[in-house]
Amino acid sequence: MYELLKVEGRAKRGRFHTPHGVIETPVFMNVATVAAIKGALSTEDLETIDTQVVLSNTYHLHLRPGDKLIKELGGLHKFMVCNKPILTDSGGFQVFSLAAMRKIKEEGVYFSSHIDGRKIFMGPEESMQIQSNLGSTIAMAFDECPPALADRAYIMPSVERTTRWLKRCMDEMNRLNSLEDTVNKQQMLFGINQGGILPDVRIEHAKIISEFDLPGYAVGGLAVGESHEDMYHVLEAVVPYLPQNKPTYLMGVGTPENILEAVDRGIDFFDCVLPARNGRHGHVYTNEGKLNLFNQKHEKDMGPIAADCKCPTCQKYSRAYIRHLLKAKEMLGMRLCVMHNLHYFNNLMTEIRDALDKGEFAAYKKMRLEGYKNNK
């Protein structure tokens, strides 16, 4: 159940109740693709950096260690020792990202594994079965993510197929949740809005899938090659046609600037690999913009990454030491940077929620964006 606590313009402050705990929104989901955060962070670490939700990948976990094995071991929560809500994506994004290795048909998608080349088939039913075996809190519908700049002739049939697949996902999830040996009989399904950067297609699709009355809805197929302006234009057009009394999730986004702009347009849920990926390469986020710790100017800097940061990294370690670790290719350097970045994103969401609670989000957004801009 989603409680809409407050609205400022289109920005929403909410609370989403799940079988694995309450999620305060807007929220950033920390990406644990193969049931682990890249950068050697444990689930105990996630507690210390105020993580609310973890996101894992259906396609990758299906390949290894295998969703049936995870079910046999008690489900994903038990397997990765996580007591927080977990969202699993459907494998639909791999339809887009593995374009050279797949064939899309009405029944589903034929893949070649990126690991060993073996043939894989995944359709709506298979995706739901895998996610049911994982036992995640929230399962995403199986969709096709068309290239953002694809033409109307490609996008229209793709979106229509995604709608048909959503109905099949719903039917299969209802069946799976009724079975005796299902890991999580309260698993929830989120539908996905598609349509490239064509506002009329997006709006019509939003109207259709909203009638399915699902627990939540995502806006997919953005941050895949279009400009930020195009993304914001799509959100302005489509979000008003998705249910305000349900969480709205912008998939795969993004930077702190993207998040602030998307919250302003009514988005509740976010995920992105950027904070962990950038951290592994020594790029760290601050309220004054992004820093590259490999730069020589940090060689003798005994201050923290950010003086105003309360993360475990900034409480103990200096830029000089972390730079040394990175240069020496010590895993600890990567881990400390990833920990800081994820804390930064989680804390950004806390500050956004606090600003919404006080009716001060517009002023907060302006302050943060000016800070990023002035220090580029």
Automatic annotation (TrEMBL):
Record's cofactor remark: Binds 1 zinc ion per subunit.
Broad enzyme group: transferase
Enzymatic reactions: 7-aminomethyl-7-carbaguanine + guanosine(34) in tRNA = 7-aminomethyl-7-carbaguanosine(34) in tRNA + guanine
Family, as annotated: Belongs to the queuine tRNA-ribosyltransferase family.
InterPro entries membership: ArchSynthase1/Queuine_TRR, TGT, TGT-like_sf, tRNA_ribo_trans-like
Oligomeric and partner information: Homodimer. Within each dimer, one monomer is responsible for RNA recognition and catalysis, while the other monomer binds to the replacement base PreQ1.
Protein name per Swiss-Prot or TrEMBL: Queuine tRNA-ribosyltransferase
Species: Cellulosilyticum lentocellum (strain ATCC 49066 / DSM 5427 / NCIMB 11756 / RHM5)
Region (RNA binding): 252-258, 276-280
GO cellular component entries: cytosol
UniProt GO molecular function: metal ion binding; tRNA-guanosine(34) queuine transglycosylase activity
